[in-house]
Amino acid sequence: MLKEVSTPGKLDTYPWRNLSRLYRETDLWTYNGKTTTWQQATERLELFKTKSESITKKFKMEDSKLVFDQFIKLNHDTIVLKQFYSINQTALYMILSNHDKDTKLNACEGLPCFVSTDFFSDSINKCITYEITNDLLGIIPDPEKYSCPICQELAYKPIRLNCNHLFCLKCLIKAQKKNLDNCPVCRAKDAVKNATSKNLDKKLLNILTTDFPREIRAR
């Protein structure tokens, strides 16, 4: 259903793109490279809900409201799952600690990964982050995915160099005029210098024209 309300051309396409960007910026599951605790995730979900209010008010499709509520519930249920694993890990550690005292077997030392407070949560977090961020939100076309690395805007009239890096036509022309011959991303020799109209990615141009009409008009 998310695809149905966020597909290019739908009334709520752009609100959903803004929500997708806001969700990624909220860092619900990871922060500064570290996995968030279920308490931190709860706080960040509330922050996301608060900031998203101004966006969801722009919904024009009833299904969008339903999908958004389901999306929030999915995240809430996931946090509850993280909490469940956290509680169980604490209980496991206490059981093994008491067992060590009674038997002197040092089970906590022998099974450090299982009694680590991050073992289960890290594994779950990676799966959750991938599923939500890539599989779910990946449905929503993201203009940043097609941005020119020089101007950081949508690479309209996209030129794909021989090294496969993508640039907008304007930036490529400017680079050639300045005699910047190599790819500014990977330094592939003469990749910019040798680029011609044949390097225009026509298939991608059609996708950009269809999926990002506002951004195209702005260019």
Automatic annotation (TrEMBL):
<dbReference type="Pfam" id="PF15227">
    <property type="entry name" value="zf-C3HC4_4"/>
</dbReference>
<feature type="domain" description="RING-type">
    <location>
        <begin position="148"/>
        <end position="187"/>
    </location>
</feature>
<dbReference type="InterPro" id="IPR017907">
    <property type="entry name" value="Znf_RING_CS"/>
</dbReference>
<protein>
    <recommendedName>
        <fullName>RING-type domain-containing protein</fullName>
    </recommendedName>
</protein>
<keyword id="KW-0863">Zinc-finger</keyword>
<keyword id="KW-0862">Zinc</keyword>
<dbReference type="GO" id="GO:0008270">
    <property type="term" value="F:zinc ion binding"/>
</dbReference>
<dbReference type="InterPro" id="IPR013083">
    <property type="entry name" value="Znf_RING/FYVE/PHD"/>
</dbReference>
<keyword id="KW-0479">Metal-binding</keyword>
<dbReference type="InterPro" id="IPR001841">
    <property type="entry name" value="Znf_RING"/>
</dbReference>
